[in-house]
Amino acid sequence: MFAFNTIKEVEWARAYYHKKREEGKTHGQALRALANIWIKIMFAMLKTNQLYHEEKYLMSRIRNSKSIRESIEKELYILFDLDIAVLQHIPSIPI
User: Fold this and answer.
1) How many CA atoms lie within 13 A of 80 on its CB side?
2) Continuous segment of H or E residues that includes residue 80
3) What's the rounded Cα separation, in Å, for the pair 34 and 7?
4) pLDDT for position 95
5) Of 13, 11, 70, 58, the residue nearest 38 (C-alpha)
6) pLDDT digits (tens, 9 = 90+) for 17-64
7) Residue 92 DSSP symbol
8) CA pair distance 45, 58, nearest whole angstrom
9) Which of 2, 10, 28, 83 makes an SS bond possible with 6, Cβ 3.0 to 4.6 Å?
10) Terminus-to-terminus CA distance in the chain, angstroms?
């Protein structure tokens, strides 16, 4: 029930739910996947004794997202006209 209600109120939760549905997941499967994320968030809140801050969560998702990081790196390579083959030996850009 909690995960379902967050679809109505939390933009990233709504987007995540719809992404799962587009992947072919049933309503229940998409809700369980979303609930699993909320469980991880709540566990981290208990572990660190901190309140939920949506901005902090979103920045963490961006920082830990391989696809976003690769997309940003590719944009930088194009922007600065860099040779991607040469730069593959450079470690990932921390966000």
Assistant:
1) 9
2) none
3) 9
4) 43
5) 13
6) 999 999 999 999 999 999 999 999 999 899 999 998 888 887 777 777
7) P
8) 15
9) 10
10) 34
Comparison of pLDDT for 74 and 5, the residue scoring more: 5
Helix/strand/coil for 43: helix
Of residues 87 and 69, more confidence is placed in 69
Are 7 and 35 in contact by the 8 Å Cβ rule? The answer is: no
Q: Find out whether 13 and 3 touch, Cβ atoms under 8 Å.
A: yes
Torsion of Cα atoms, 52 then 17 then 62 then 38, to 10°:
30
**Three-state secondary-structure class, residue 74:** helix
**CB-count burial class (<10 Å; 0-12, 13-18, 19+) for 17:** buried
The CA distance from 14 to 48, in Å, is 26
- Nearest CA to 93 out of 67, 64, 61, 69 is that of 69
Task: Decide: 7 and 14 in contact? Cβ < 8 Å.
Answer: yes
